[in-house]
Amino acid sequence: MDISDSEKKAARWAHDLFVLNIFFFHLLLTPATIMLGIGLKGLLIPLVLSLAVITYIYFRGQRESRWFVAAHWRLAFKRCKLLLIGYAITAVILLLAELLTSGMKDAHMANILVTVITRIAIMPTLILVMVTVVMEASATSLVGKGEVPEKIMKEFPPHS
Fold first, then answer.
1. Which parts pass through the membrane (predicted)?
2. Second label for 26, Cα 20 to 30 Å away, from 16, 17, 40, 152?
């Protein structure tokens, strides 16, 4: 299959957008909200922005008519799903922290506990951020070669 440079560029954009999402919203904005002391509500800002990008990646992949390009947008969305798993695990840990501290009589101790658990809670997301960035580097290499992973080809076969 011969893949044009314009198709490679359009396919690469899916992976580049994912990495930009990670860079800006997770590696820059999330630590900034923590350092500025905005609190747990401040962590919603990068989350909402990241979810907007993930939604765009999903819908962009669904409406793409060129098979190679669509396959790479779908691959990028698979990586987004991993990130969503990290968000879910983090949310569950934060919810547990909220439940654990809601009945505490000592507000100072509750604040310390929330701070500690918040730092622990972001670890699943942080780990999946690092894993998916490495995966996206590999996917960008595949785009340059005009290739699609076998698993994606099975799930989303090329048009005849």
1. 17-37, 43-59, 80-100, 112-135
2. 152
Q: How far is CA 100 from CA 6, 69, 90, in A?
A: 53, 47, 15
Distance (Å, whole) CA 148 – CA 68: 7
Distance CA 14, CA 56 (A): 10
With respect to residue 152, please indicate whether it lies within any of the assigned structural domains.
no
pLDDT in tens, 86-113: 999 999 998 998 888 888 888 888 888 8
Give domain status of residue 154, yes or no. Answer: no
* Domain total of the chain: 1
Ramachandran region of residue 132, left (φ > 0), alpha (ψ -120 to 50) or beta? alpha
